[in-house]
Amino acid sequence: MESLANNHGFLDGNRRIAFSATDAFLRINGFYLDVIAEEGYEFIAGSMDRHEFRFAQILDWFVSISSI
What we know:
The chain has helices spanning 2-6, 14-28, 37-49, 55-65, and strands at 32-33, 66-67. The protein is globular and about 30 Å long. The protein has 68 residues and is mainly α. The model has no long low-confidence stretch (mean pLDDT 89). It has one domain (2-67). The chain has a two-stranded antiparallel ribbon with strand order 1-2. The chain contains four helices and two strands.
């Protein structure tokens, strides 16, 4: 997720792709993100705007919103 969002692999939609790909990966592995769209967007956009979108912060956020 961090790499997809930060490295701008696509012309547009890097944040959306990063979130969707991560959500699909986690679902395949039995984890589910329990978050509404606005919260997910605010986390990603806000973290990136503050230059805090790093693995440790993403992991902490996942733990706080995920369910098995």
